[in-house]
Design brief:
Layout lengths: L5 H26 L5 H6 L26 H10 L20 H5 L2 H14 L12 H12 L2 H8 L5 H14 L4 H7 L9 E5 L9 H5 L21 H6 L13 E5 L5 H5 L7 E5 L10 H4 L5 E3 L4 H4 L3 H8 L11 E3 L9 H5 L8 E3 L1
Parallel strand pairs: 1-2, 2-3, 3-4, 4-5, 5-6
Amino acid sequence: MASWRPGGQTGVNELLHRKRGEQFRHAQNVLNSRAHISSALAIRNNPTLPINLTSLNLNDEELYVPKKPEDQQSSSSRSPPMCSGPGPPKSWVAKLTTLQDLCATPSWRLDALAPLYSHLAVSTPTQRVLPLSMLCLLPLVTSCTISELRDAVLPFIPPHLRKEVIRYTAIHEPLSTPRLFLLYEQEGHADGEIIVVGPNTSIRDDYFIQSNQEPRPDDSGIPGPQPQGTPSDEEEEGDWEAEDNSPKLLQTFAAVSTRLSMSTILTLPPTITHLALINLSSSISLHRLPRACPLLIFLDLSYNEWLEYPSNETLKSLGRVDWGRWSNLRTLGWRKCFVPNGMLVKLNTGRWDEINVVR
């Protein structure tokens, strides 16, 4: 029977230690590294949490700002990946192959609507922590059924909060057509504003015709009897200090990545001062816009493919635009659009201040 020998146990440990050393030196030679084995083993005893964990500023915007593609490439070239193993399969990586896929991203919609929001003096709805009103309204507006939204939710949401919800969802997750226009149902708009973001949402061709219709008098031409509860003229004169509850007029209309017929444009209310027609699926007759909306202060026609590569018909329509009719125009969005010869001269003819062209 073999007896236990301490020397045998010691010899095995020495062989294992020698093999580990040889393997480590071989790995260091491959990596061209001069680190000692003792320093590599000491890494296991180092703290795993950041040293400045207790002094981190949670309000620091840099912790939440995503890196730009060029920054990611430079950082990846300088330092190895933080996780081991191969990269994800190609099927797991989302690829934007077409322009339609790119226009369906929140970042593109944010860039498209940024000039309009800036001109309206509205903070871009990208806060990390939303207001309490938005946190409460968004789940209700997006998850309730259409009947529940109409009967139990919308009667208690004032127009200015509807407008805030629509501004936020227009960038992050556009609402469907029934759900969006249910928010516009009360006055035809949300606190003087309509924003339609496609491609799954569109506006009816006769939308403004129906919304502008008013109740007509009887066939005899004599107005009908005054409804019960309606104040008389004397009561109205006595309440001149009361708050004005008259409906607000439509002043802002934006259509992004959707279809917009010419009949809809010709029936736009003349009270509109801010108009954005971005990435429309079909071309429109631009020379008819000044007559339809003469009070424009802001006009954005960016990212329209039919203006980036205009046809002869589009160029003729663009040449017939009466820019002088827009005497109040201050800003023109013209990103990724073709600029014909002499257009900027016609644009600023007869003006004291040049129009700000966003290109």
